[in-house]
Amino acid sequence: MYGRGMSAPITAPSSADLVHLRRCLTLAREALDDGDEPFGSLIVDESGDVRYADVNRVGGGDHTRHPEFAIARWAAENMAPQQRAAATVYTSGEHCPMCAAAHAWVGLGRIVYVASSQQLAAWREQWGLPPAPVLPLPVNAVAPDVPVSGPADELLDEIHDLHARSAGIAPPRME
Fold first, then answer.
1. Distance in angstroms (rounded) separating the CA atoms of residues 46 and 85
2. Whole-model pTM?
């Protein structure tokens, strides 16, 4: 652990991480295709098995229905504390403060993301969209002991395009 007041180091995602991050992009695309915001996340246990995956579900008006929050709740109910600490959460976008807090409170391990909260906030500003109702804080500003890896530069164009499409900035892609 990294003691209170010190942040865990932020590292770049590994090539093994990219496999799971690509799945998160697929989930984000599915969420967007279903009329929701393009976020997708999954939790991988210590042996490398995907235990749970989810997408954004805020389209119905409940803006707390983030996949990272759902993963924290699922993990608290289905994994022992040692399993949670050894697990990795992969996500298309860095956890918001609400999700980072939930992640830390249930004792989950490492977070790996494609795009940072700061990047998403900058894109939204560039597109003339209003800011999110909470500050785009990095995970370690909320949960300083959580190891974090990101952004995944190799995948940024794809998540950028999904968010642009969600914002009505870009036409739907032809598959």
1. 9
2. 0.92
Whether omega for the bond prior to residue 151 falls within 30 degrees of 0, making it cis, is yes
22 touches 41 (CB < 8 A): no
Query: What's the CA gap between 156 and 133, in Å, rounded?
Result: 23
Residues 6+ positions from 19 with CB-CB distance below 8 Å? none
35: exposed, middle or buried (Cβ count in 10 Å: 0-12, 13-18, 19+): exposed
Cα distances (angstroms) measured from residue 141 to each of 6, 38, 65, 91: 10, 24, 22, 18
Digit-coded pLDDT (tens) for 58-83: 999 999 999 999 999 999 999 999 99
CA dist., res. 83 & res. 109, Å (int) = 9
pLDDT tens, 33-49?
Answer: 999 999 999 999 999 99
